Amino acid sequence: MRMSTKISKLHLQHPFKIARRSTDSFREIISVEIDEGIGEASPTKFYGETVQSVEKIVNRLSGTIDIDLDAIQDVMAHIDENISGNNAAKSAIDMALHDRLGKKLGVPLYRLWGLNPEKTPITSFTIGLDEPDIMAEKALMADEYPILKVKLGNPNDFEIVTSIRRVTDKPIFVDANTAWSAQQSIENIKRLSDFGVELVEQPTKADDIDGLKYIRDNSNLPIIADESIKCAQDIPIIADAVDGINIKLVKCGGLLEAIKMIHVARVHGLLVMIGCMIESSIGITAAAHLTPLVDYADLDGNLLIKNDPYNGVTLHNGKLILPKSPGIGVVPVLE
Ligand SMILES: [Mg+2]
User: Fold this and answer.
1) How many angstroms separate the alpha carbon of residue 47 from the centre of ligand 1?
2) Ligand 1 centroid distance, CA of 136 (Å)
3) Fold for domain 112-332?
4) Within its chain, how far is the Cα of 218 from the centroid?
5) How far does the centroid of ligand 1 lie from the alpha carbon of residue 174, in Å?
6) Burial of residue 107 (number of CB atoms within 10 Å: 0-12, 13-18, 19+)
7) Out of 28, 183, 222, 273, which residue is the most buried by the measure of CB atoms under 10 Å away?
């Protein structure tokens, strides 16, 4: 299996900030090609990866695997046996293998899995942390997106939500990105539900499972775990502590693992969201193909950048419209 990589910079429309990280104005991503297939990773230091670490893993594996590439399960199992962690690197490889197989068979990914493309949800659109009036302005500019995901975790969280509520009555999801204590979360969630907030993501620290359960047991909004879970084996540990999970390809190691996570989550009666990092249309479209299986999509990474190198999934009144061309179905944007 020969692989090639390319590192590129995605420039953001607006500087992007969340509770546990400083402001970013660009994001480095890495694409991986295997024959006709292309995949992508947007690694984060929070999960211990960089574009350089992904490049290193891909280069190390390139030319070393002598397995039928159509048997993606076997290829990924082989990689898992030889390399622990490095899920962003694995995700890029898994994505390129799926794109390659879809193109070879002449079917889009959703068809490869027997999914109904009409069943895609509406994606939420993220408003990054900023001054309350600027966040309200961004909410106003996000006119075409029916659901907002508002990043919180600042001392002035309620000023932010009040400002946004002044300009829109759309459904709001909030994401505290681990910033609140358990007690603070309960008080905040009580107030947020009065503002018409519908869901709360990762209120407290990633490893604070007891805290999450305490919050869930004392709150009336669905609590979704993001930083607390990476892959399928993490789900049983957290299943009684939250209402749902947020799956991301770069966290879990790719499409195969994401599918496994969806099914494990369903066995535990959990809600499922598919989320993303700042990614190009390659990563976002690959994840979008899975959305007929989930309750919530938060696939807006490609909407937050100004130099998306590919066209892929589109939106119609916020609903994800999957490309019908084979594989992931992305095509390069003509310069
Ligand atoms: Mg999140």
Assistant:
1) 13
2) 20
3) TIM Barrel (3.20.20)
4) 27
5) 9
6) middle
7) 273
Spatial separation of the C-alpha atoms in residues 160 and 138, rounded to whole Å: 12
C-alpha 312 to ligand 1 mean position (Å): 23
Domain residue spans in the chain? 4-106, 112-332
Residue 88 buriedness (CB in 10 A; 0-12 / 13-18 / 19+): buried
Using the mean position of ligand 1's atoms as its centre, give its distance from the Cα of residue 291 in Å: 17
Q: What is the pLDDT, as a whole number, of residue 13?
A: 87
Residue identified by tokens 């490049």 is 55
203 alpha carbon to ligand 1 midpoint, in Å?
Answer: 9
Q: 201 CA to middle of ligand 1, Å?
A: 6
AA letter at 326: P
**Ligand 1 center to residue 275 CA distance, Å?**
7
- Cα of 68 vs centre of ligand 1, distance in Å, is 36
Distance of CA 130 to the CA centre of its chain: 21
Domain made up of 4-106: CATH architecture? 2-Layer Sandwich (3.30)
pLDDT given at position 320: 98
Say if 4-106 and 112-332 have the same CATH topology: no
Compute, in angstroms, the gap from residue 35 CA to the centroid of ligand 1: 33
Distance 84 CA to ligand 1 centre (A): 24
Q: What is the pLDDT of residues 13-47, one digit of tens each?
A: 887 777 777 668 899 999 999 999 999 999 999 89
Residue 291, number of CB atoms within 10 A of its CB? 26
Instruction: Give the tens place of pLDDT for each residue, 114-132.
Output: 999 999 999 999 999 999 9
8 Å CB contact between 177 and 202: yes
CA proximity to 312, closest of 293, 335, 325, 330: 330
Contact call for residues 85 and 21 (beta carbons, < 8 A): no
pLDDT at 335 over 80: no
Half-sphere exposure of residue 199, counting CA atoms within 13 Å on the CB side? 24
At 100, the pLDDT band (50, 70, 90 cuts) reads very high
